[in-house]
Write a structure and sequence with these properties.
The chain is an alpha/beta fold. The protein has three domains: 155 residues, Periplasmic binding protein-like II (D-Maltodextrin-Binding Protein, domain 2), CATH 3.40.190.10; 155 residues, 3-Layer(aba) Sandwich (D-Maltodextrin-Binding Protein, domain 2); 179 residues, Rossmann fold (3-Layer(aba) Sandwich), CATH 3.40.50. 42% of the residues lie in helices and 18% in strands. The strands form three sheets. Strands 5, 6, 7, 8, 9, 10 and 12 form a seven-stranded mixed sheet that branches. Strands 15-14-13-16-17-18 form a six-stranded mixed sheet, with helices on both faces. Helix 1 packs across helix 3 and helix 17 runs parallel beside helix 18. The radius of gyration is 23 Å and the shape is globular.
Amino acid sequence: MRRRALALLTVTAALLTGCTSGGQGHKDDPAAPKPGTLRVLASSELSDMGAVFDRVREDTGVTVRPTYMGTLDAVDLVARGKADGAYDALWLSSDDYLRLRPEAAKKVVSETPVMSSPVAIGVKPATVQALGWKPEQVTWSQIEQAVQDGRLTYGMTDPARSNSGFSTLVSVASALSGAQSALTDADVAKATPRLKEFFKGQKLTSGSSGWLAAAYKRRGTVDALLNYESVLKGIPGLTVIRPRDGVVTADYPLSSLAATGARTREDVRRVVDDLRTPAVQKLITGTTHRRPVVASVPPAAGLDTGRRRELPFPGSRSVADGLLDSYENELRRPSRTVYVLDTSGSMDGDRLDSLKKALTDLTGDFRDREEVTLMPFGSDVKSVRTHVVEPGDPKAGLDAIRRDTAALEADGNTAIYTSLEKAYDHLGADRDTFTSIVLMTDGENTTGAKAGDFDGFYRRLTGTRRDIPVFPILFGDSDRAELSHIADLTGGRLFDAQHGSLDGAFKEIRGYQ
């Protein structure tokens, strides 16, 4: 729990610095929204609502201007009062977690569900056939058994960052514990042995549903994905199953923030009313695969209309956070990450100080059993230091990482590609971990292997080593095109600390490790 609480605080600070979607405006800011524009703090999965936002603007004259963020991080932002004055409305996939935080719940008014999507499992048809499943009859216990038998592997988003992952975790815990009401600590304890077996099948993690889908398509190494039905329906070739014994459902309430004035609340009301008209409900279900909340509008073709039990959500924040802590530190596969860190001469001064602070702060978010390798480089790799956060004595590993961080010094040129090759060599053969490489550089490659050399090196990788993604961080004077190419080549994702903060970039990557 200690790490979970600290992570929420530090992620919030990073997000405040790093939001660049135009969500934060003030009266004396010439870039602040004009009347008729709603600054909406929104769950990241709502990025598929572009056509709906356009329709709302046509119907009402109100422009929806979203800033996308993970649901749990957004709740923490609201709870700390940092959304007041920066946003006008809140649109999350669910307000269930928000209601567990009274200091957040009091910040919103007029919650109105707009659409819904249940948790589901999308399975390759060949796997469905091999398991002998009838999709309408599948239960969570059958899914658990298929995992135990080694016949089913899957990917899901990180519950500590993504509400789809958290809702999936709650669904599985509720079903496997047999809870008949809101989850309790006793339910979680009862289900833990089965949950440990269940999560042995998780071979892919992600901080967002979009990257999860892309990684699934690229790698083809898992049999299924756990996510919202709407996300799974957007991925060709999956049989989408809602387990018969129940699921947690997102209802996407749009709410005014309590700090707003009457005129803004009226704009929110107009937008909500338009979103719930039959025409817009049809547009929503047809373009996003979410279910309408207006009874007269049927779900889009392909959405099963059979009823499912709504599984109970945790009854208190302590239970919810305890479940998250258990998942992060006990249930999921451990993480293994190499941090390839530019400590060339150009990093001297404030840049190196920023790197040291970001890494030191990040230690509060490292999980039990996590293996962390620091690989600083200049003209070549300077050192390779690996530490493990042992559950019996996590402080020893964390203190060692902090000491190595404090000892970083800036000198030399910038050997990006040579250092990346050595990171892959260090990782070597596959182990039962979530494995990744984080690259932080403040400049362009100036010595050692060239881009073409690294491309050839990467394409010669075989087996699971080729599935190890690189997550580059834009910082200082680094080249976006150069780092984007590395991310695209390796199946990673680019994170921006030029327009945000280095702390924020490191924290956001955690959902992908």
